[in-house]
Amino acid sequence: MGEGLEKAVKKGPFYRKYIRPVKHTIGFWIISAVIGLVRLVPRGIALWKASFLGGLYYSLSRKDRGVASKNIEIAFPEIPTHDRDALARECFRQSAMNLVDIVRAKAIVESEPPLWRIEGEDIVRAAIHDHGGGIVLSGHIGCFELIAGIWKRLGVDVAVVGRKLYDERIDSLLVQQRESMGVENIPSDAHPKKVLSMVKSGYLIGTLIDTYTKSVDGRSAPFFGREVRTISAPAGLARVCDRPLLPMSIFREGKYNFLLKVWPLIEIPKTNDKNADIDELLRRANEAIEAMILFRPSQWIWFHDRFRE
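Now predict its structure.
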């Protein structure tokens, strides 16, 4: 009864008009202050503090810790409980460190010598040579905001499709950071023709499909043995463009470095049954995301409620 009343209040006009704007403003200034502090403090110190705070949040956040534990049990039912707990704790630590490096993304991308290396660059170069632009498939794994910036530094035209954040000011901060690296930002509600035009002109378009959302079109597809709602737009666009999906993800490597790993292309099934083709492509896409997660499990966001349906 109390929980229902609380939800009703939060959906009411008074909350939306007066309380929510204040909360968003406070949140914006806190985030701005944290960003400024992270950029001011030496990276090593910032990462150490983030790792500590991530572990502390794991201990204190009963809800997110529970979601992570449930998800890990679904994906790895054979793992003992204490190992699942250790994986979840490390996930919180890694995610906090990734937030620090997302704030420092431009400096990391432009680092000399590079703090990153690429495994499978030849796959991307061959795909660009054969097809021009294409759809990059990835997930919230490692410091994923670095991927587009790295390819841009290597001379590739890149854009990313991003869902608008809950507050326009915070969303603007993220868009500005992407643009500072030469990466174009495409809102998730942009007309598909814009994305198609950019792909045909030689752009790599980055997409993330590993989270649950109802704000964009999705279909059911298997993921770690469960049917989950999966964002379908990248599959549909790839089919229309007749270009393979380019799966890739980035992982923390040691304390300060990164590995950008490119996986084998996902070829486009194309029959007379469009819906069957997209379903098959989503199955293959989720298989690719699974492979990325299995490569270094602690670097995925296990605290996201991916299996809610």
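The chain has two domains: 2-106, 111-299.
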